[in-house]
Design goal:
The chain is mainly alpha-helical. The protein has helices at 21-27, 30-33, 37-53, 59-77, 90-102, 104-108, 115-150, 171-196, 215-222, 231-236, 239-266, 293-316, 331-352, 359-368, 373-382, 387-404, 413-417, 427-431, 433-438, 448-462; strands at residues 156-161, 164-170, 198-199, 226-227, 273-274, 356-357. A two-stranded antiparallel ribbon has the order 1-2. A two-stranded parallel ribbon has the order 3-4. Strands 5-6 form a two-stranded antiparallel ribbon. A hairpin with a 2-residue loop joins strand 1 (156-161) and strand 2 (164-170). The chain binds arginine (ARG).
């Protein structure tokens, strides 16, 4: 960072003493908002072009601005741009450098514009791009889940409720539950993007501008789908950032749930899966350890993204119209949310593609938990027993099997018949894990055929 020489670096003749040093540092945002630089340039170029088209900027000035901005872009990309905290933020840094480079024409750029509509535009352009990157990574994760699911439509594991063995499901079915969650996340992000993708520029400071600008033209040049239709609202509200962070929180919540399951499944008590070594770390004291650090950290970082959502909601709460400096605080939470999401999603897509599945341990766990008890009750109901009576008969059968230390399917027919005389030899078809899965063959069910159809539908919507 370069220090500005003039005591009046930031402000004009209106000020009678230099800005206090701490105030300068406290109010400056350039250390973080320089991240918006390329979008700031993009917005400025569209604005300048519109100004020249409506006759507010000479063609030669536009050409100079374009050349100057090209040079600034190069400086920024090669890390040679002379950022200065004295110039407060990314907008003033770029504008000042432009004027240094091209003179008079640089001073004309800010015609019919304010930093208030400028920053709102930059953040929207930046966020639109970030959403597109996130979408690509959610999509990659969904494909990784589909690829893994495809190999495991016949792999049987216990389905849990209350973390107690409930009914058998396929591992594919379990994975496809997450695939559905991430599909909804994508839909939410797409919907959010439509509201992000609107142009605030033209609102100027708050009331609009006296110049004959063409906002539609700027929107068109920047690829916005529409305009913010009230100038006060355009410079003031950050609901789009809050909405995005809410979508991001839901993505993290889903990742956190999956993380929790991976952590449980990787524990030797379950031993259902192994994560590839590159996603784990060891212990400095316990030589035998292999810890699932990546899912644990993703679970932990979920709290941080929720925190950003709360932070942004609170930032906006009770702000009077229109722009207030409070809004400068929207950037760091937004940046951190996007960084966290991009890393977590990238890691997860890779990690899910490299899981080793212990199908034997999964199957054994399903067998040990009386997972087909509901199937036996359904069997009795189909033979005319009222469901409540069937439930009670099976409960007694489970207790009996438990006392003998075996599965329901291991009980001889005569013993099973003690609990209900309608039981016949055909009962063993429903007491098997395979029979239990196959019987749930409807849309949304865990039968291999139903899950294969779900995978095919998801692939069709993803075009993958
Ligand atoms: N750095 C400011 C922000 O991020 C830019 C807008 C400043 N506008 C103002 N009137 N001080 O919000």
């Amino acid at each position: 960072m370069q220090e500005e020489k003039s005591p009046n670096g930031r402000w004009s003749g209106r000020f009678s003493e230099p800005v206090d040093e701490l105030v300068k540092r406290f109010t400056a945002s350039v250390l973080f908002d320089r991240r918006l630089a390329l979008f700031d340039i993009q917005g400025s170029l569209a604005h300048a072009r519109m100004l020249s088209e409506v006759g507010l900027l000479a063609a030669s000035d536009l050409a100079a601005i374009e050349a100057g901005m090209a040079r600034i872009r190069e400086e920024i990309e090669s890390d040679r741009f002379p950022w200065s905290v004295d110039l407060e933020d990314v907008h003033m840094n770029i504008e000042r450098r432009l004027t240094e480079l091209i003179g008079e024409a640089g001073k004309r750029l800010h015609t019919a514009r304010s930093r208030n509509d400028q920053v709102a535009t930059d953040v929207r352009l930046w966020l639109r791009d970030a959403i597109d990157q996130i979408q690509a990574r959610v999509r990659a994760l969904r494909i990784a889940l589909l690829d893994l699911a495809e190999q495991h439509t016949e792999t049987i594991m216990p389905g849990f409720t209350h973390l107690q063995v409930a009914q058998p499901v396929s591992f594919a079915h379990h994975l496809m539950a997450y695939q559905e969650m991430f599909a909804r996340d994508q839909a939410r992000l797409a919907d959010c993007r439509r509201r992000v993708n609107r142009l605030p520029l033209g609102a100027a400071a708050l009331a609009g501008t006296t110049y004959p600008i063409r906002r539609e033209r700027v929107a068109e040049l920047l690829g916005f789908e529409g305009l913010c239709e009230n100038s006060l609202d355009a410079v003031s509200d950050r609901d789009f950032a809050i909405e995005f962070t809410a979508c991001a929180s839901l993505v993290m919540m889903h990742l956190s749930r999956l993380s929790e399951e991976l952590i449980l499944w990787m524990s030797p008590r379950f031993d259902f899966i192994r994560l590839a070594d590159r996603f784990c770390t060891g212990s400095s004291i316990m030589p035998q350890k292999k810890n699932p650090d990546v899912p644990e950290l993703v679970r932990g970082k979920t709290g941080r993204v929720y925190g950003h959502l709360m932070g942004l909601l609170t930032l906006m709460k009770a702000q009077p119209l229109a722009y207030n400096k409070d809004n400068q605080e929207d950037k760091e939470p937004l940046f951190d949310t996007v960084d966290t999401l991009l890393d977590a999603l990238t890691l997860f897509a890779d990690m899910m593609g490299a899981i080793t599945v212990n199908t034997q341990a999964m199957r054994q766990a399903a067998r040990e938990g009386y997972a087909t008890a509901t199937d036996l009750a359904d069997y009795l109901v189909k033979k005319g027993v009222p469901f409540r009576d069937a439930h009670e008969a099976v409960a007694r059968a489970v207790r009996h099997a438990e006392a003998k230390g075996c599965d329901l399917a291991d009980l001889p027919l005569e013993e099973l018949r003690q609990f209900s005389p309608v039981i016949d030899a055909d009962v063993f078809a429903v007491l098997t894990l395979e029979g239990s899965l196959a019987a749930r063959n409807h849309l949304g069910g865990t039968a291999p055929a139903a899950v294969r159809a779900a995978i095919a539908r998801a692939r069709a919507t993803l075009g993958a």
